Amino acid sequence: YQRRVHGISSLARQASMAAANQDFHDVKAYFLKGDGGSSLYDHVSDLFRVLIETRPSNPLATFEQLSSRLKQSKFEQKDILREVKEEKVRGVEWAERCNKSIEVASSEKIKKPKQPTTDSGSDSGSEEEPEPEPVEVPDFTFNAALLERCGVALCSQTELFMLHVSLKTLLHTQSDVRNPRFFGKILGSQKDYFILETELDFDDDEDADADTQASVEAPAEKKGEGANRFAYFVSNEAGGSWTRLPDVTPAQIRVARQITKFFTGNLDAPINSYPPFPGTEANYLRAQLARIAHSTKIAPSGFYVMKADKDPNQDDTIEPDPDPEAEEHLPKKMIENTEYTAPRVQDLVKAENWTHYAPFLLPQGRVQFWRPPRAEKKGSPTGEQGDGGDNEPGASGDGAGSEISEDSGPADDEHQVETGPALLTPAGEDDNVAELPAWTARRSTGLLPNPVVSLRSMRWPGAYSVASGATFFNVYVGFGQKFTNRNYTPPAPPLMQREPHTQRERFDPTIQQEAELEEKRNPKKPVVDDADDNRSSADPSAEQVSEDAEEEELDA
């Protein structure tokens, strides 16, 4: 009986072990399944091998990272370790740059030296050094907080802090920068662009007037004027170094209107397009920034006013009558209203209560219209200068107020002068975009004090104008492309040139024919006696007609 029981138990143990072995092989076969020669069984085996060989201090914290790197590197241990080390090196380098920027920014207050004004006869030794003038650094965090209340995220708090620090570092290194403003962020396929808009102190002799050059192509506007009024600095990362973009030319603006090209994040990248763009991505970025700035800069009505001209011979007690024709030259006469009062929130949500304060960018690619010198020689009328703003129904150019003909170029008619709408044109007069209003308003929640109102441009998606109380600002966060409701089609190449005019072929005369013709043209005079001096000579006109007839016969 005991032997029977022992045999039965042995058979039961063998059956259970066989079943366990079968289950183990089934599970292992399941783990060995995979595509492309890799399986979960191999991945876990290699993962534990890497953990045993490297022995990290916290294996649980690095388990997921090593597993992800192991998949990407196709089970190559050396590549995993190299990539992990490279990430650590990049993080350390970024931290070192941030610390260096913070040290420079916090070293002392940012001040700009004033230019001393001295008389020619004064003693240089008695001059005192002028006190430095402090420069106001804009607060990015405040604007970002207002933007977040409208549902737009600019960047993280760390990036905002590093942007503020890098701006202070730029003001330390660049002594000619003043009135800096954060323009926005352009998204790229590889890297992004953080953009800073500033004004620079230019010397009078630094930039020559290019309009005096006898050229058919419209020259670029001088630094500090027109499309080159502001200077733009860009950086690929928050806290990185700033690079100044070159000035823009009218040709670059005209070609940028005809192409659609997304940015890569590399300023030296070529622009492969048709028509060919004259420059690299840095020039293309500068052209797009000029188009965006001149189209989307709007302010609440009443914030800016026009300063009327003052006649030096007129009495100060008499107020001059407003002249509507003086609006042609108003870019230099627009000033901030010292008596400005913040409008109500109910008024800010209407686009009619916002005005464009940036000058209109003409189809020529300039703010001031430039006429070729050949037009002045023919006595064409001078016309009016195109100093207007951005918006007017039916206007053409880079204004937000019209359905712009992007492929339009400079005026071919020498009598036609390009003009645009005047400054402070209401944004509500902008033309619709694909049957939608050009600006859409949004108001923040009313549960918090000081509600925020934002206007979003439909023509340039990503352009926002935010106002809260008496504060307002403009910012752009997007891909730097204009809205279009149709698929982009490259323009067709120009027509082929006509065949040249064929000249009539003639045979060259022989030497004998040339000699005969020479004899007919210059015949030998016969020798005459003195008695023959009184004879009448032949008619010279008849001889000339005969020579011409013989020459025509010879040519034929």
Task: Give the distance, in angstroms, between the N- and C-terminal Cα atoms.
Answer: 144 Å
Cross-sheet strand order for the largest sheet: 6-5-4-3-14-13-12-11
From the spread of the alpha carbons, the general shape counts as: extended
Beta fraction of the residues? 5-15%
Q: Quick one: how many beta strands?
A: 14
Task: Tell me the radius of gyration.
Answer: 40 Å
Q: How confident overall, as mean pLDDT?
A: 76
> Which structural category do the helix and sheet elements fall into?
alpha+beta
Low-confidence stretches: 113-127, 207-213, 316-320, 326-331, 375-396, 400-413, 530-538
Description:
- The chain has helices spanning 2-31, 40-54, 59-72, 77-105, 140-149, 157-173, 250-256, 281-296, 345-348, 373-377, 511-521, 540-555; strands spanning 111-112, 133-134, 177-186, 193-200, 231-235, 243-244, 298-300, 304-306, 334-336, 354-356, 439-443, 453-457, 463-468, 471-478.
- It has an 8-stranded mixed β-sheet with strand order 6-5-4-3-14-13-12-11, with helices on both faces. The chain has a two-stranded antiparallel ribbon with strand order 1-2.
- Strand 12 and strand 13 (463-468) form a beta hairpin.
- The longest helix is centred in the first third of the chain and has 30 residues, at 2-31.
- It is α+β, with helices and mostly antiparallel strands.
- The model is unreliable at 113-127, 207-213, 316-320, 326-331, 375-396, 400-413 and 530-538 (pLDDT under 50).
